[in-house]
């Protein structure tokens, strides 16, 4: 974003891990995220390795249809919605950064441990992979995008403590299986009111000569299992498979999907309360370091991408970096704080949770007898309005 803005600057990215690898499972890039990535010219590369879903479908844990919402271009947005493997997304971004900023722009094995901003610059202190201190670096500005366990956020908020956990865990996986529902639908199934929930969507179609797809899933359950906040923590099938063992619908075999995954990851549902300030002179926070949110609306990465554009725009508009970061914060902090709170109280899952509550988890004969469609539409509209999803 900084490069594309035309701002005359030299950008360096300091990454803690010693080696960058394509890890993780699937991620949804909503239209407000692809709008920004398309402006960087990345749309063809993203499209080549992703699925472009046309709709999001909501089902009960009996597999009964509840609600349909068009997404991406189908919903009239200017930019598509892509469902993609997180590793593929990272590799596309990595290649673009190296091509545009130069092969030396990313320095791995640099874990930032402290920043010291003053009136004229900021000094960054690092440790290497073995914990040995590295040479400090001086820069005009520093943007802390070091995730939910951000060291820099902790420096400015030393008493904040760990991310907030409310007793829900998530298990994630990717499974090679035959496409379901035509291969272009993202689905939310179940609900935490009476049972469990799972989000299922394809991230790549036609992966072999046998018509298989890569299908991503995220299973959620209320549990006393308390996992560390670590992207790479392996999941244990015995902890959650039993919740879904009889979820076999005529349109999708959820149980088989979970059983057949190459591997599973386990991650707690955590966020942090919004803070009043992200910017401290020549240092500011971005992405999960600034506004970690429950992953309930497919929005954390999208908002980080929007932040990046906002920072570039602010730095271009203000000669004084501290003024630029203050402007960025004024633009983005109130908007993302609303999403953090809405992801807790009224995320898109409220649609399935509401129906489960009204039915007590029982089968229904006709969804229109359970709830008026306009009420479900209102939940969807309220979330999309807050999350910027309708402005793409
Ligand atoms: C189950 C789940 C599903 C999700 N699905 C979606 C989705 O569909 N759509 C969506 O938009 N969002 C989704 N999210 C949210 C999204 O993953 C995050 O919001 C996003 O990864 C935040 O990006 P980030 O760059 O701020 O932080 P991160 O992705 O956490 O990246 C932080 C980086 O900083 C590095 N780092 C950490 N500490 C240091 C340090 N001290 N020094 C140097 N480097 C450091 C890390 O190694 C890492 O590379 C989901 C999250 C979860 C848990």
Notes on the structure:
The protein is of the alpha+beta class and 392 residues long. It has twelve helices and 17 strands. Helix 2 crosses helix 8 (300-317) and helix 8 (300-317) packs antiparallel against helix 9 (321-345). The radius of gyration is 21 Å and the shape is globular. The structure holds flavin-adenine dinucleotide. Flavin-adenine dinucleotide is lined by residues 14-17, 27-28, 111-112, 145-147, 151, 170, 172, 218, 267, 287-289, 295, 298-302, 304.
Secondary-structure topology with pairs:
Blueprint: H1 2-5, E1 13-14, E2 26-29, H2 31-39, H3 43-48, E3 50-51, E4 55-59, E5 65-70, E6 82-85, H4 86-101, E7 106-107, E8 111-117, E9 122-127, E10 137-139, E11 142-144, H5 151-156, E12 164-177, E13 185-190, E14 197-204, E15 213-222, H6 241-244, H7 254-259, E16 264-271, E17 283-285, H8 300-317, H9 321-345, H10 350-359, H11 367-370, H12 373-386
Parallel strand pairs: 1-7, 4-13, 11-17
Antiparallel strand pairs: 2-6, 3-6, 4-5, 8-9, 9-10, 12-15, 12-16, 13-14, 14-15
Helix pairs in contact: 2-8, 8-9
Which key features would you list for this structure?
392 residues; alpha+beta; seven-stranded mixed sheet; 12 helices; 17 strands; binds flavin-adenine dinucleotide
């Amino acid at each position: 974003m900084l490069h594309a803005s035309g701002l005359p600057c030299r950008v360096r990215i300091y990454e803690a891990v010693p080696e960058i690898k394509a890890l993780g499972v699937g991620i949804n890039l909503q239209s407000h995220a692809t709008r920004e990535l398309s402006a960087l010219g990345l749309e063809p590369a993203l499209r080549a390795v992703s699925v472009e879903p046309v709709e999001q479908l909501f089902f009960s844990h009996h597999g009964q249809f509840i609600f349909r919402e068009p997404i991406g271009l189908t919903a009239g947005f200017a930019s598509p919605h892509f469902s993609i493997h997180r590793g593929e997304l990272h590799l596309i971004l990595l290649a673009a950064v190296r091509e545009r900023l130069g092969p030396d722009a990313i320095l791995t094995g640099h874990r930032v441990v402290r920043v010291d901003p003053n009136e004229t610059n900021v000094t960054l202190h690092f440790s290497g992979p073995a914990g040995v201190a590295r040479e400090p670096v001086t820069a005009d500005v520093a943007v802390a995008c070091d995730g939910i366990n951000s060291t820099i956020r902790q420096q400015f908020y030393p008493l904040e403590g760990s991310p907030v956990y409310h007793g829900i865990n998530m298990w994630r996986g990717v499974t090679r299986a035959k496409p379901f529902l035509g291969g272009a639908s993202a689905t939310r199934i179940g609900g935490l009111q009476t049972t469990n929930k799972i989000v299922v969507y394809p991230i790549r179609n036609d992966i072999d000569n046998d018509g298989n797809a890569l299908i991503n899933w995220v299973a959620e359950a209320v549990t006393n299992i308390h996992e560390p906040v670590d992207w790479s923590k392996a999941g244990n099938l015995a902890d959650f498979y039993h919740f879904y063992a009889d979820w076999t619908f005529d349109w999708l075999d959820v149980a088989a999907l979970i059983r057949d995954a190459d591997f599973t990851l386990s991650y707690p549902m955590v966020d942090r309360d919004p803070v009043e300030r992200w910017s401290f002179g020549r240092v500011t926070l971005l992405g999960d370091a600034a506004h970690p949110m429950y992953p309930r609306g497919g929005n954390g990465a999208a908002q980080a991408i929007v932040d990046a554009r906002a920072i570039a725009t602010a730095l271009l508009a203000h000669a004084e970096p501290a003024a630029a970061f203050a402007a960025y914060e004024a633009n983005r902090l109130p908007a993302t704080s609303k999403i953090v709170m809405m992801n807790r109280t009224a995320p898109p899952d409220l649609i399935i949770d509401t129906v489960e509550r009204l039915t007590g988890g029982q089968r229904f004969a006709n969804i229109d007898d359970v709830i008026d469609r306009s009420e479900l539409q209102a939940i969807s509209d309220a979330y999309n309005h807050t999350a910027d999803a309708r402005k793409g």
